[in-house]
């Protein structure tokens, strides 16, 4: 007798859970969102044009190769002014800010970063026309940076 | 004197886009790690990296503790005229280092 309401209740609960849309912009922790806002202000950040090359699975978070490339003609009128990279779970959300110009020819920046945990990395490109484009990548880290003892 | 490794083509055609890579030996101590005696190791990082071509800035980067030890940076630039690409790193504890490479543009 009592099994029917329970099942109905369960089905209602299950349906409620599944209708919550997946919203990546809201899933980022506060500090990451705050750091991004500091750079972009109130301008809308659109996804696209930016390619974030980072391995999806990393054994050692102490040196993770990362390359950000942005589609841009890199002319005086339309070029990438800056590339900003942020992370979600390191002690600080900033990774680096790089400033470029038409003299770069290609908007590509590569470096190696530290990742303290399995997390999301976000790259944002700022164009000379005032637009912001972004890409993000999820990275699984098995050995984190910053935790080992020194020598 | 800091150890610096720079890689760029020795020659380039005028207008060609070349890749430049620069690496410097530096611990990039984050300031978030406890040492063997339990106290935090003070932060010691490179904060700024600037590249100039014949004195004109072509690339600038602001680093955070999240940049791996021995910071490596690669970027592209258009070979405009023969000259010297000069790199300057500066950071905590008055750290400062320079490196340069010459490119012949034909």
Automatic annotation (TrEMBL), chain A:
The UniProt record lists the keyword Signal: yes
PROSITE patterns: TAT
All copies of domain Ig-like SoxY, residue ranges: 37-146
Keyword annotations of the record: Signal
Signal sequence bounds: 1-27
A Pfam cross-reference name: SoxY
Protein name stated in the entry: Sulfur-oxidizing protein SoxY
Automatic annotation (TrEMBL), chain B:
Gene3D superfamilies according to UniProt: Immunoglobulins (2.60.40.10)
InterPro entries, per database record: Ig-like_fold, Ig_E-set, SoxZ, SoxZ_dom
Coiled coil: none
Pfam families, per database record: SoxZ (PF08770)
Domain called Sulphur oxidation protein SoxZ: residue spans: 9-101
Alphabetized NCBIfam families for the sequence: SoxZ_true (TIGR04490)
UniProt-recorded name of the protein: Sulfur-oxidizing protein SoxZ
Organism: Enhydrobacter aerosaccus
